[in-house]
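User: structure tokens for this one?
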Amino acid sequence: MDTRLRNLTPFGADIFILHDHQRIALWKKESGYDATGLEYLIADRETYYVRHLNELTIERGDRVAILGRGIGLVKDTSPREVTVVLGKLAPLRIARKEIIRDQQNNRWEWNPITTEGSKYASSNLRPSQHQGSKL
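Assistant:
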């Protein structure tokens, strides 16, 4: 923001932010930064970061791409693990730290191959005994 303001201030004009059809002063050529404008920007950024943080927290009802298998649905969450249901297979318990947010695909992902050594191994990904389907 500071770089942008430095590019605009040589024009010698006051700089305002438009919010709800009202002008909020951000920069005044006589006095520099205006406290009201800075307070508005800080409050706006805090709101953005709280909202953004919530988007980065996996919640019940979210979908998880289980790489090489399909899309599962989050049934339950706890501080350490997430329970995901993939079709008619037994629920999978996956450590939260093993589920990543893929920004490019805009989705949650879990790679069962990379977790074979953990207690969340991909053995749960086999079809249950009572059904005859194969993945």
